[in-house]
Amino acid sequence: MVEDSPNLKTAHRDVDRGYAWVILTCSFFLHLMIYGLTTSPGVFYVQFFRDFHETHGSTAWISSLLTASSYFVGPVASVLTSRFGCRRVAMVGGLIASFGLFISCYAPNIYYLYFSYGILVGVGTGIAYIPSINVVAHFFDKRRSIALGIACSGVGAGTFVYPPVTHELIEHFHWRGAMIIFSGITLNILVFAMFIRPVPSSGSTPSVPFKHLIRSFGFQVLCVNNLLFLFGLSVLYTHVPALAEDILGEDDPRATWILAALGAANTVGRVAFGIMAHWRRLNGFMLALVSFTATGFAVIAMPYWRSFDGLLTLAIAAGFSCASLGTLTPQLLIDLVGVASLHSAYGFLLIFEGIGQLLGAPVAGWLYDWSNGYEASFVTGGVCLAVAGLLLVLPIIWPSKGPIGSPGSPESSPERVTVSVAEDQTDLIESTFQDASPSPDKTNMVSKF
Fold this sequence. Notes:
Layout: H1 8-13, H2 20-39, H3 41-52, H4 56-72, H5 74-84, H6 86-104, H7 110-139, H8 144-186, H9 188-193, H10 210-215, H11 217-248, H12 254-278, H13 284-301, H14 308-322, H15 324-337, H16 342-371, H17 375-391, H18 393-397, E1 418-423, E2 428-432
Antiparallel strand pairs: 1-2
Helix pairs in contact: 2-7, 2-8, 3-4, 3-8, 3-11, 4-7, 4-16, 5-6, 5-7, 5-16, 6-7, 6-8, 7-8, 7-16, 8-12, 8-15, 11-12, 11-16, 11-17, 12-14, 12-15, 13-14, 13-15, 13-17, 16-17
């Protein structure tokens, strides 16, 4: 791996202490800005619908393209992180996202926004995300689950802060002016990325062949689970502001605070699930199963509890319970492939998350256009969320014998396998899947695949 500086020995001494806490703080704010951008389209959605007079389904493509692009670029981001290091990749992602926001203010139609806001901002945030989570996993070992929970709580903080700020900026500067302001704010991704040091070396570890990764039953279930769950989340985050306006009235300022409350609950939930996951007696799959299913039921009930108090209660419940996704998924992957290969496995998993994000919001929009109401949209999204949770009973009933590459694993292999990601006559970018098996004294937060 090409790192940002040669000071690896210093970085190694800072695992679980010292500069690791600076890394964690930077990761928190990177998550806040990255996911603040990917959740604020729910507020912009209403403005785009009014200004461009398109259908709900067509307008929802903007949000779906943004979030889907951020996930689809995951494999590329993982390769770039492996080759150039976390700091440089995060900075490039911030530049791309800022540029996309800036040119979005000149959008003459919705199709322009598909590219500028949907694709460019999505690609930029996606590129910046992988290094922001990867660096925390490397700088923390015994406290990793708690650190991941704190870092990922930036997602909820962004969802809490950005919607009301977006609403106020739109009120004072129109949505075009808000785009320019957010373009400047997004440049702060570069500031926090500059504090990232090279990740500590994980040493010489046995390899994990790529074919064994994708054949792992636990990993297959996780891929389908994430696809369905992100489908449902796309419905929730994109359409809940419009649902709130439908229930409370178009000019009711409380509609924006529904999404903010969801984000606040998500912030608390990510830290809470990180602490719960750190308790070794809890089964990680069971924890995710319960929380995912609870999210689904909360989303299903939203269009039927037609009051501010009811919608607020369900938004808080959904925000808290869905927080387990961001907190538990990295640790589940580390348990499967080891920390050294987290960025590679996560990059592959993000493809499935991107498919779910791409389809969720537009399908919900089309269902609204067809039924002239949000009942069908939120029921569909909620069912996908609940099914995603129930799928996790499968690896609980039929667990693998151990992590991939471990001596007890059926996928174990002594060979070192390098998977070529992109190749031409002058350059070769490779992603190597390596397994860092947990040490005996490490606190495991989840059951083994």
